[in-house]
Amino acid sequence: MTRAEKALRVRAILDELYPTTPVPLEHRDPYTLLIAVLLSAQCTDARVNQVTPALFERASTPQEMVRLSVAEIRSVIRPCGLSPAKSKAIHGLSEQLLAEHGGKVPDSFEALEALPGVGHKTASVVMAQAFGRPAFPVDTHIHRLAARWGLSSGKTVERTERDLKALFPEESWGRLHLQIIYFGREHCPARGHDLAACPICGWAATKKRIREEASKRRA
């Protein structure tokens, strides 16, 4: 089966399993989504959703956020991990939004990636989910599953993004990003996974991945 054939079948299965794809991070607008995505780095969405209500109650706009000190922000977001860097980034990007964008989150990759603490993946999520722009954010779930399914070599996140964009139509990227995340969490764990019983791995996993998973289970 070619990669293109696999991609068609993967998409059909994901559309059946996840006809609707709500953004798992609770947010109100592009700014609160940006902050939530930034907080999700090396942290679960569930933990972020526990923390953001208290943060957004105190500050849900750049104007309100800059009135808080970095220490105050850090005290609220500490459970998310990496709080020293994240609190500085949240305060800094809020200042930059006010100084350069009239307090609005910009809808371009270049402007988003110029904000403190905002990398390509975070910018991609905001572009896709807040503005409906073509973007295929690749997180650890997607990077892992694309390699497991033989849709990409999996050598780098950048390579995975390029491969997936080439395989799937542009209008499906934002939806697939969420569908694959949901599938990875519910059906396709990183460890102890029975590939044969998986709705996608059962037929899509490469021989190399099957050998690797079998070796992990024996270890």
Q: Would you mind describing this structure in some detail?
A:
The chain has 219 residues and is mostly helical. The protein has two domains: 3-20 and 137-218, Helix-hairpin-Helix base-excision DNA repair enzymes (C-terminal) (Endonuclease Iii, domain 2), CATH 1.10.1670.10; 30-129, Hypothetical protein, domain 2 (Endonuclease III, domain 1, Orthogonal Bundle), CATH 1.10.340. Helices cover 62% and strands 0% of the residues. It is built from 13 helices and no strands. The chain has helices spanning 3-17, 30-39, 45-58, 62-65, 70-77, 83-101, 109-113, 120-129, 140-148, 157-167, 173-186, 201-204, 207-218. α5 (70-77) packs across α6 and α9 packs across α10 (157-167).
How would you summarize what this structure contains?
It is built from 13 helices and no strands. The chain is mostly helical and 219 residues long.
User: Hey, roughly how much beta strand do the residues contain?
Assistant: under 5%
**Helix-residue proportion:** 55-70%
Low-pLDDT runs of 5+ residues are none
How many extended strands?
0
Q: How large, in whole angstroms, is the Cα Rg?
A: 19 Å
CATH level 3 topology of the largest domain:
Endonuclease Iii, domain 2
Individual helix count: 13
**CATH superfamily assignment of the largest domain?**
Helix-hairpin-Helix base-excision DNA repair enzymes (C-terminal)
N-to-C series of helices and strands? HHHHHHHHHHHHH
Average pLDDT, rounded to a whole number, is 92
The CATH architecture of the largest domain comes to Orthogonal Bundle
Secondary structure class reads: mainly alpha
The 3D shape can be described as elongated
* Highest-level CATH class of the largest domain: Mainly Alpha
- Total domain units: 2
